[in-house]
Structure formats: structure tokens, C-alpha cells
């Protein structure tokens, strides 16, 4: 195909504005899939993603569209993930396109992620095609949202498609818009191969499958390829594109999008953002924008009682083959034994991995409280980066500590400005500025410690604003901060898995919450169990789980035989989810209770 018949585009939107639904309709209208097949279609293919309504893995689908001008066009639809944790992947898939369809829910209007995604698309110089969705709903306000798109996005809304992705109304308008307004690719086929990896995933039969956009030259089976950033070499075993399934083709040439396989065993060797060229005929410069993503949030993952360390390791290894941003290394905890310190892009990424360990590997795990990376300068001039609170040197050896900061952008109807500022202030946020977007809506900018943002900030924001506020954040370097290590002692014994690094002013409040929660979670035993929170040797909060009275036990065990049996069985069941700490049995839920912060 000649390049003037190709259109490479993405769909971008705020979450829930209808991106996936619109993608389904475009696929359906171009005759790629039957309606009933759509449930299991290529986009959003992971269960977890569907349930959470988010797209984690990006993929590319080829649509063949016969336009009103009678010509046939190849529309390569490149899907992008929808959550801040995955912004880098979004930027790489946008780099594979010439245009982006910006879906705006006409009942909600422009929200934080609408703008955040728009900025990402503009950074890649994409042609932006706004689309108003959900016009079937009575609360749809087309004129208002149009003016919002003009004023806050600076986009022309003349002739903007007004669609219902749900019912399929006016979907052709979107297709025609793409054909006429997305520029076609221009790349020199005679030059050395230059292709961008915008997604890669592991397939147990073929090894890693790389989704690529070819900018110059061409690639086919047998090509010896060279990854310019990881510096690895492979021989291509298959090339093709995805229609309703993978279809092999002879080659992929400049301007086009497709996949390649090359017996690659791990996604780490085919990183998103890397440039592929030929071993024998290298292109001069790699494509810009490659970034080795670094984890923002860490936590310890330990096998629950009765689970094997090696099983957890195997599961993490399997997940990592498919997820280059998951990192882990073994660590030991006095309380929990052998486990792993794992790094994630953000809390959502962390939750997804924890859930996959449970669902796909049927493993019971205990996760410690999430932590960010702190910078520590010791009195003797040594510099440390700490992500496990247990590794923090004693306070007397520390000169100063720094914590990572993020620039938060919160978009909200102006009626919620008060409550939002209160939440941010509470989380040690520093107000930067506020802009009026129009008469109803504002954007508030705060500089906040990442440490505070990872705990329930987003949820609090949503609940205090009935879901109207939206959040976007970006790492903004490190800042000196008065941080302390808080320990939890159960029956006088320090449980390292509960240790946290907190801001000194927050310590007392946090300590109270935790000891109160633990008191509720730890069952009464035959002796009283003190639960204490301490900074160094100073106790800052205390609760006691009182002892069971002897006669209660006696009554229990004195009863009839079947009741006794039942009780023993119940205890056995319960044991599985307990961890023995000193002579106290701590249920798994106690660890979760420390994680959640309310
Ligand atoms: P995404 O998060 O942007 O991918 O949004 P989805 O495509 O998952 O849509 C979010 C919700 O909005 C789903 O419940 C859809 O059924 C619904 N939805 C999407 N488009 C329309 C539409 O045009 N009209 C109506 N009424 N609902 C829609
Ligand atoms: Mg979606």
C-alpha cells in the first residue's frame, strides 16, 4: 500500500468518557469483528482491565475502511492505557501516530485527563480530532462542552462529530474525519530500517511480540535486527499485523504499523520506546523519547503462612517477563521471613500485581505498606536511597532526609475548591496557583509529597467532590523534609513489616489510626497484648488487646464433642491466614489494615 492510504491514530480520553466503546464501534463499522465477538476482542483483553474499566496493555488493530470517496484506507488504531501510572506507554504509542481522536463525554465535559492526554498528543505533534460522545444521554450538553473544548483545549469544534459510541450513532463521521484530517505518513522506504517499539508482550508460543511503527526502511522475516537502546540483536521470525487475529505478512514498510517476533525471551529486551534498526545497515540516530521507566512505589511482598517462597518467586518472574516496569529483589523480614521488595509505577500498578498473584497464581501474599524512595544524607557524608523503612539508619546518624515531590493538577467545578484545598493542606501540599477555565471550572496546582499522594489521596478527592474532581501528577524532584521512622511493637516485639517512614507532624495521627486498627484485627488470646507505636524509644500511641478470661475458654472446650471439633477446624482454617509474631498470632488482615489509611 502507498503511504497516502494509511492513517495511524490513537483514541485519547478521560477515563469513562467512552474510548473503549468507541474503539469497539470503529472496529465493528469497518467489518473487522462480529458484534458478539467483541466481548473478547483484542483491545482491553485482560480480565482485570475489563473489570476496572482501564486499558493497561496497548495494542494495535488494523481497520480497512472504504471511505465516501470510494477509496480503501488502512486505519491503524493504536490503543493507549488510561491511567497516570502508565503515562510513558501512552506517550510512546502516541509517537507511533499522526493523529488522535479526543473523546469528550458531552455530559461531563473536559476533565484533567482530557487535558493531560491532549498535552501528550500535542507534544508528539499529532493532529487532534475532538469527538463529542454520549449525545444519547439527556444530560448531554453539546453547546456547553463545545465551547469548553474551544476555550480550554483551544480546538476548533466546527463540524465536530456528535456520536453515541454506545448506540453507534454517527460513527461514520469519525471515520471520515480520520481519513480527511489525519495526515498520512511520509517515510523513506529506501533508507535503513528505523522502527519504534510502542508495545511488547510475552506470548508463550512465539516469545515476545513487539508492536512497532516503521518510520524508515522495511522489516521482514530473516532481517537481523538491532535494538538501539538495549543493544540486543535478534533475527526476525515473523512479521504481520492484527486484524481480528494476528495475520502474517511479507514485510512492514515505512509508514505502517504491525508486529514482529524474533525469539525474544523477555520483554526487557524489547522495551517500549526502543528503536529497532538492522544489524548490518544501522540507521544513524535512535528515535527520541526513550526512557527506562523507574518505579515510584515500593512494597514488600511475602508469602502468607502455608505458601512457598519459591512459588512467589516463580510467579513474580512470570509476571516480569510480561511487565518490564515490575522490579523485585529478595529481602528478609524478621517478622515475615523470606520475601521480595517490589517496585511499581504507582499504587494502581501495585494493586494489579497483587491481584494477579492472587487470581492467576492462586497465591496468598502479605504486602507491607507501600513506600517511596527517600534520599538520606548521613553525618559521615554517605548518601543513601532508602525504599525499605527497615534499612533507615538510626536518627542520630542522619544529617538530613529528602522526599520525592509531585506537581498535582486538580481540575474541578469551582464549588469544590474549599474541600479540595483542605484535603491538600492536610496532606502537606503547597498551594501553587489556581486558574479559572471558564465560569464553572478551575484547575488547582499543588506541590505535594508523593508519600502523601500514594495514600488514598485520589479516593478522598473523589469522595469529597462526588467524583467531579480529576487528578494528574508528575514527579518534580526531591525536597528536604522532617521525616521519622515509626515502628510498631506487638507484645513488646518490633514488627519490621509494619515500620513506616512518616513526616514528624503526621506521626501521632498515623500512629493512633494504626494501633486502633490493629487492636480490632488481632484476636484476643490468653494473655493481654500491648500494641505500641514508637519513634525510636519514644512510645507515641498505645492500645491493648485484653486477655480472654479463663472460664470462657473452659466453657468452650468443656462442651459437646462435635462443637469442639468444629471449633478446632475453624481454628485450623484461620491459622492459614495468620502470621506468628513472637507468641502472638497476627491475622493477614492486620497487614492490610496498616496499608489502608483512613
Ligand atoms: P473508557 O474508560 O474511556 O474506555 O470508557 P468506556 O468505553 O469503558 O465507557 C465507560 C462507560 O460509558 C461504559 O459504561 C459505557 O457503556 C458508557 N458509554 C460509552 N459510550 C457511551 C455513549 O455514547 N452513551 C452512553 N449512554 N454510554 C456510553
Ligand atoms: Mg477503556
Automatic annotation (TrEMBL):
It comes from the Bacteria. SUPFAM superfamilies: EF-G C-terminal domain-like, P-loop containing nucleoside triphosphate hydrolases, Translation proteins. Residues 4-186 form the Tr-type G domain. It holds the Pfam family LepA_C. InterPro entries: EF-4 (IPR006297), EFG_II (IPR041095), EFG_III/V (IPR035647), EFG_V-like (IPR000640), EFTu-like_2 (IPR004161), G_TR_CS (IPR031157), LepA_C_sf (IPR038363), LepA_CTD (IPR013842). GTP binds at residues 16-21, 133-136. GO terms for molecular function: GTP binding; GTPase activity; ribosome binding; translation elongation factor activity. Its EC number is 3.6.5.n1. It is a peripheral membrane protein. Gene3D superfamilies: 3.30.70.240, Elongation factor 4, C-terminal domain, Elongation Factor G (Translational Gtpase), domain 3, P-loop containing nucleotide triphosphate hydrolases, Translation factors. SMART domains: EFG_C. The keyword Cell membrane applies. It is an enzyme of class 3 (hydrolase). Coiled coil: none annotated. Keywords: Cell membrane, Elongation factor, GTP-binding, Hydrolase, Membrane, Nucleotide-binding, Protein biosynthesis. GO terms for biological process: positive regulation of translation. One of its GO terms (cellular component) is plasma membrane. It is found in: Cell membrane. It catalyses: GTP + H2O = GDP + phosphate + H(+). Required for accurate and efficient protein synthesis under certain stress conditions. May act as a fidelity factor of the translation reaction, by catalyzing a one-codon backward translocation of tRNAs on improperly translocated ribosomes. Back-translocation proceeds from a post-translocation (POST) complex to a pre-translocation (PRE) complex, thus giving elongation factor G a second chance to translocate the tRNAs correctly. Binds to ribosomes in a GTP-dependent manner. Belongs to the TRAFAC class translation factor GTPase superfamily. Classic translation factor GTPase family. LepA subfamily. This is Elongation factor 4. It comes from Citroniella saccharovorans. The lineage of its organism: Bacteria, Bacillati, Bacillota, Tissierellia, Tissierellales.
Amino acid at each position: 500500500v502507498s503511504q497516502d492510504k494509511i492513517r495511524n491514530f490513537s483514541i485519547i480520553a478521560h477515563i469513562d468518557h467512552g474510548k473503549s466503546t468507541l474503539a469497539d464501534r470503529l472496529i465493528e463499522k469497518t467489518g473487522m469483528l462480529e458484534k458478539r465477538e467483541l466481548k473478547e476482542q483484542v483491545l482491553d483483553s485482560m480480565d482485570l482491565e475489563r473489570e476496572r474499566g482501564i486499558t493497561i496493555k496497548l495494542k494495535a488493530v488494523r481497520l480497512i475502511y472504504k471511505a465516501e470517496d470510494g477509496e480503501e484506507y488502512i486505519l491503524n488504531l493504536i490503543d493507549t492505557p488510561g491511567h497516570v501510572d502508565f503515562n510513558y506507554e501512552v506517550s510512546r504509542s502516541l509517537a507511533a501516530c499522526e493523529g488522535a481522536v479526543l473523546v469528550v463525554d458531552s455530559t461531563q465535559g473536559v476533565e484533567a485527563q482530557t487535558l493531560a492526554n491532549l498535552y501528550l498528543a500535542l507534544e508528539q505533534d499529532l493532529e487532534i480530532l475532538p469527538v463529542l460522545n454520549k449525545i444519547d444521554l439527556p444530560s448531554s450538553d453539546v453547546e456547553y462542552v463545545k465551547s469548553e473544548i474551544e476555550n480550554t483545549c483551544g480546538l476548533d469544534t466546527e463540524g465536530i462529530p456528535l456520536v453515541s459510541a454506545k448506540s453507534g450513532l454517527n460513527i461514520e463521521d469519525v471515520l471520515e474525519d480520520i481519513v480527511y484530517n489525519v495526515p498520512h505518513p511520509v517515510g523513506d522506504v529506501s533508507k535503513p530500517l528505523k522502527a519504534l517499539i510502542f508495545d511488547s508482550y510475552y506470548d508463550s508460543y512465539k516469545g515476545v511480540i513487539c508492536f512497532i511503527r516503521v518510520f524508515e526502511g522495511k522489516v521482514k522475516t530473516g532481517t537481523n535486527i538491532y535494538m538501539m537502546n538495549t543493544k540486543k540483536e535478534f533475527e526476525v521470525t515473523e512479521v504481520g499485523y492484527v486484524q481480528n487475529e494476528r495475520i502474517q505478512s511479507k514485510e512492514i514498510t515505512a509508514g505502517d504499523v504491525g508486529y514482529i517476533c524474533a525469539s525474544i525471551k523477555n520483554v526487557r529486551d524489547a522495551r517500549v520506546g526502543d528503536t529497532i534498526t538492522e544489524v548490518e545497515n544501522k540507521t544513524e540516530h535512535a528515535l527520541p523519547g526513550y526512557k527506562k521507566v523507574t518505579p515510584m512505589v515500593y512494597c514488600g511482598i511475602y508469602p502468607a503462612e502455608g505458601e512457598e517462597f519459591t512459588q512467589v518467586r516463580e510467579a513474580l518472574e512470570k509476571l516480569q517477563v510480561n511487565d518490564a516496569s515490575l522490579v523485585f529483589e529478595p529481602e528478609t523480614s524478621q517478622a515475615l521471613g523470606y520475601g521480595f521488595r517490589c517496585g511499581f509505577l504507582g499504587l494502581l500498578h501495585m494493586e494489579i500485581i497483587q491481584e494477579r498473584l492472587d487470581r492467576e497464581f492462586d497465591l496468598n501474599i502479605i504486602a507491607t505498606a507501600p513506600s517511596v524512595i527517600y534520599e538520606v544524607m548521613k553525618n559521615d557524608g554517605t548518601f543513601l536511597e532508602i525504599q525499605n523503612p527497615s534499612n533507615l539508619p538510626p536518627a542520630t546518624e542522619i544529617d538530613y532526609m529528602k522526599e520525592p515531590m509531585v506537581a498535582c493538577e486538580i481540575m474541578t467545578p469551582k464549588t469544590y475548591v474549599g474541600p479540595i484545598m483542605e484535603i491538600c493542606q492536610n496532606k502537606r501540599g503547597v498551594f501553587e496557583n489556581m486558574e479559572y477555565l471558564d465560569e464553572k471550572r478551575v484547575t488547582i496546582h499543588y506541590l505535594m509529597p508523593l508519600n502523601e499522594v500514594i495514600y488514598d489521596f485520589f479516593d478522598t478527592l473523589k469522595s469529597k467532590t462526588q467524583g467531579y474532581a480529576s487528578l494528574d501528577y508528575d514527579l518534580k524532584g526531591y525536597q528536604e523534609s522532617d521525616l521519622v521512622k515509626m515502628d510498631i511493637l506487638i507484645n513488646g516485639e518490633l514488627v519490621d513489616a509494619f515500620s513506616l517512614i512518616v513526616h514528624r507532624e503526621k506521626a501521632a495521627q498515623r500512629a493512633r489510626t494504626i494501633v486502633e486498627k490493629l487492636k480490632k484485627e488481632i484476636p484476643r488470646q490468653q494473655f493481654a497484648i500491648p500494641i505500641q507505636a514508637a519513634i525510636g524509644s519514644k512510645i507515641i500511641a498505645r492500645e491493648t488487646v485484653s486477655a480472654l478470661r479463663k472460664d470462657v475458654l473452659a466453657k468452650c472446650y468443656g462442651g459437646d464433642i462435635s462443637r469442639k471439633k468444629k471449633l478446632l477446624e475453624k481454628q485450623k482454617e484461620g491459622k492459614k491466614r495468620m502470621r506468628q509474631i513472637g507468641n502472638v498470632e497476627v491475622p493477614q488482615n492486620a497487614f492490610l489494615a496498616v496499608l489502608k489509611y483512613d
